[in-house]
User: Fold this.
Amino acid sequence: MISRERPPGVGPEPYPGNGGGGVRPDPRPEPRPPVCRDREVCENHPVSRQRCDWEQVYKTRPVTRYRTVTKYRKEARTRTVTRYREEQRCCETRYRDVFDRQWGLQVQVQFPAGVELLNNETETFKIDLAGTEAAPDVVLTPVSTIFGYKILSKQINKGVATIVLGQIPRYKADDLKEKSLQAFVATPTREGLNYSFLDNGLLPRISSQHQLVVIETATQEVVVQTELQSTADRSNSGSLLINWDYSRDYQVILKVQRQGTVIEGQAVQFEVVKPLSMVLDIGALKDEKRIKPSLRGTLNNVQVLVKDETVPYASVNTRYYITLVRKNALGKNVVLAEKGFSRTALQEGADGFYAMNIKDFGISSSDISNYLKAGSKVQVVVQVDRVTPDGQKIQFWQSANVEVR
Assistant:
């Protein structure tokens, strides 16, 4: 193809994009926007120049895709297995010698003087036959006795065994001192003092005397001194009339004296001191951690427990408002029962808890059977109201989530 330059002014005017005259615009529609890529294409036209343009070329390629599919299924497989074994069992015949004759020994026990039993008193011994018929022997063992014994001599002559006993102390002195006295409680009241204790040293042939003394701590001045009445019951309780001075502290002393031939040394004495703080500790009265609510028992035997670790000042009026709360199906709190108790009207147990029966709360039988059975969970809320002698009011709450058991 030959192209030459057009002289100026000769031929038709060029149109945009053509660069030459005499050639009409391409009547074809405008190409669509390229979707793959463009390439340059040259075309020859019977004009004096060359025209270049772009055209769309669609290109495809094969694509192979894979995916992994794992499918599961549940199936139960069983099989029957029968196992056998061969065994041979034999019977074994055993023989033993059987004696068709018996032998015995007569036993005589000689007790020392001064150990005679009175009224319904009893002592129990165990006698075992030992040795052989040619050389017999006996063993004497005390089982339950009032006095202490030891074997002084033992003789066996012509089928008769003679055992001579001597008396020794039945109890050690340390066993009858402080550890024999339990649950000693001294509680001041508006009228005076309430006391109680358990004496495990009240044993046969032992004489015990108890003396209760109240002294002022700073001056050691004796306020009250009294002899307690002896009783056969190991529990002892009572009250004393005392005019307290609430600006002072006191001590309660329980003096015990024991006498008897069954005691090591034949006598023992000791004393137990219980401090009484009468000066008000306001910080302790406001401390909610000193209140510990709980539950004990199931169903109709449930007891609501409250432990107040503060001093039971006679001049402080304390009242507990107890509420039992359960959760319903929606998780909301529902009140089972509530009631108020005065501290002075409650009796403190040996464990330090005030116990209130669930029947005193007026709860229905259906609620007891449904919500106070073993495994149920109940929230015990205690509102504590205190009033001091100067009219100061103290109020706080303490709660505990308890499982009925």
